[in-house]
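Work Package 4 report. The design task specified in the project plan requires that, given a folded chain encoded as C-alpha cells, an amino acid be chosen for each position. We show below one input record used in the internal validation round.
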C-alpha cells in the first residue's frame, strides 16, 4: 500500500452505529485505533469490552473492543495519521440540516492535528459541505491542503442488524479535494474493505451519492405508501399487488408500504438535497411530496386503529392500545427517527392508554415481556417486526382477548388473524 510507512494509525470521531464498527474493522486490519466520543458512558462501555448498543457485527468481535483506545479527550487525534469523522448530521424541527456536530469535530481536528493527516468525512452531508464548510475551517486555521492535511469524503454505508452486509463488504464511493488525497484515501479504504471502491470525479459528487441513494428509497416508499392509501379505498391488497408486479424480471424493484420510515438516513437525507437546492434556486417538488407522504404514515396508522375500534364499538380514549416494537427496524435497539415515537404521540392526543413493549429496548418498555404485554392490551399496533413478534402464533392474540390489530409492517398472517374473529388492518391491506 502506498504511504504504508506513514498511515498506520486511525482516529474515529463518533463511536455510534457507523464509527464503532469501522473502528473494529480498522483493528482487524492491524491499524492502531483511537476512538473519540463525548458520551462518557459509551466510552466506559467500550473500555470494558462491551458494546454500548446491540449490533451483531460488534457482538461477534467484542474481543476487539478493548484494543480501541477510547477517550473523550480530543488530544488523542494528534496521534493519528488518519482521522475519520462519523458524527450525526440531523435536521431541526424545520428540517434544516444541523451541521454543528460536524463543524465541532472539524474544530477539534484543527486544535489537535498532525501534519499530513488524511481527514475523511463519513457523516452524511449535502453536496458542497466539504468544500464550503469543512475546508474553510481548516484553511482559516492556517492549514494547507496537500501539506498539513488531505480532505476526503466516503459516505457511510451501513445497515444495522444486517447479518450479510456490513462495513467489511459493502462497496463504497470516494471523493477528495486533491488527486494526492484521493490516492491516499483509496489506499486506506482498500486496506479495510473487501469490496470495490469507486472513485468519484470530485468530493461534491461523492457527497451527492448518499443523498441520492436514500432519496431514491424515500421516493419509492412514498409511492407504495400512497398506493396503500388508494388501495384501502379500492379494496385491493397492496402487498399482493406488489408481489405480483415483482414477478416481472426487469424494470421493477419491489418496495413495501408501512407505518412510516425511520433511521438516520431515509427520513433525513432528502432534506439535505432539498435545502441545498433551494439555496441555489431550485425547488425539489418531488422530494418534498415524498417526504410529506412518508411523514403522514404514523398518523394514518393510528387512524386505521380508530377505524377498527369503531367497528368493535370501543372508544380510543382509555382503551389499552399496545405499541408492539419501538425501534425503527427489526432486531436492533435503534430509536433514531422511529415512527413509534410519532405513533405514540398521536395516541396520546387521542387519550389512549398506551402500553409499550420492545424486547430490544427494555428501558422504554412498560412491561417486562411479551406475555405480559398481550395480557394488558385490548388492541395492538405492530410497529416493528422483531423476530419474536413474527414467530408469535396468532392464537395468542385470541387467547388474550385482543380485539383489533393494526399491522404497521404488513408482517403478520392476515388470514389467520381474521379467521380468529380479530379485526385486522394492514397498511393497504384489509
Amino acid at each position: 500500500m502506498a504511504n504504508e510507512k506513514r498511515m498506520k494509525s486511525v482516529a474515529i470521531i463518533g463511536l455510534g452505529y457507523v464509527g464503532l464498527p469501522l473502528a473494529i474493522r480498522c483493528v482487524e486490519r492491524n491499524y492502531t485505533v483511537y476512538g473519540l466520543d463525548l458520551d462518557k458512558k459509551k466510552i466506559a462501555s467500550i473500555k470494558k469490552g462491551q458494546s454500548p448498543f446491540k449490533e451483531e457485527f460488534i457482538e461477534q468481535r467484542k474481543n476487539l473492543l478493548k484494543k480501541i483506545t477510547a477517550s473523550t479527550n480530543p488530544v488523542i487525534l494528534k496521534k493519528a495519521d488518519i482521522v475519520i469523522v462519523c458524527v450525526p448530521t440531523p435536521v431541526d424541527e424545520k428540517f434544516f440540516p444541523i451541521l454543528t456536530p460536524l463543524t465541532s469535530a472539524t474544530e477539534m481536528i484543527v486544535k489537535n492535528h498532525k501534519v499530513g493527516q488524511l481527514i475523511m468525512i463519513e457523516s452524511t452531508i449535502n453536496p458542497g459541505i466539504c468544500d464550503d464548510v469543512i475546508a474553510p475551517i481548516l484553511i482559516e486555521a492556517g492549514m494547507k491542503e496537500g501539506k498539513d492535511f488531505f480532505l476526503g469524503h466516503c459516505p457511510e454505508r451501513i445497515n444495522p442488524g444486517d447479518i450479510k452486509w456490513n462495513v467489511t463488504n459493502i462497496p463504497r464511493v470516494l471523493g477528495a479535494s486533491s488527486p494526492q488525497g484521493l490516492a491516499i484515501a483509496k489506499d486506506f479504504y482498500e486496506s479495510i474493505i473487501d469490496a470495490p471502491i469507486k472513485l468519484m470525479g470530485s468530493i461534491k459528487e461523492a457527497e451527492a451519492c448518499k443523498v441520492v441513494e436514500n432519496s431514491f428509497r424515500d421516493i419509492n416508499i412514498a409511492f407504495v405508501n400512497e398506493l396503500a392509501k388508494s388501495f384501502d379505498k379500492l379494496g385491493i391488497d397492496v402487498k399482493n399487488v406488489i408481489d405480483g408486479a415483482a414477478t416481472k424480471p426487469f424494470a421493477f424493484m419491489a418496495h413495501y408500504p408501512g407505518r412510516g420510515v425511520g433511521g438516520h438516513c431515509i427520513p433525513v437525507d432528502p432534506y439535505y438535497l432539498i435545502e441545498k437546492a433551494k439555496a441555489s434556486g431550485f425547488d425539489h417538488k418531488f422530494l418534498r411530496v415524498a417526504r410529506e407522504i412518508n411523514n403522514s404514515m404514523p398518523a394514518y396508522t393510528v387512524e386505521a386503529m380508530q377505524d377498527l375500534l369503531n367497528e368493535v364499538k370501543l372508544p380510543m380514549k382509555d382503551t389499552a392500545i399496545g405499541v408492539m416494537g419501538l425501534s425503527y427496524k427489526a432486531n436492533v435497539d435503534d430509536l433514531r427517527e422511529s415512527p413509534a415515537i410519532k405513533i405514540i404521540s398521536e395516541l396520546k392526543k387521542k387519550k389512549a392508554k398506551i402500553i409499550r413493549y420492545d424486547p430490544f429496548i427494555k428501558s422504554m418498555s412498560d412491561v417486562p415481556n411479551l406475555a405480559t404485554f398481550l395480557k394488558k392490551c385490548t388492541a395492538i399496533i405492530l410497529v416493528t417486526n422483531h423476530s419474536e413478534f413474527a414467530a408469535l402464533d396468532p392464537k395468542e392474540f385470541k387467547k388474550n382477548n385482543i380485539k383489533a390489530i393494526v399491522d404497521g409492517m404488513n408482517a403478520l398472517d392476515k388470514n389467520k388473524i381474521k379467521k380468529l374473529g380479530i379485526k385486522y388492518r394492514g397498511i393497504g391491506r384489509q
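The mean pLDDT is 94. Validation will be extended to a larger panel in the next phase.
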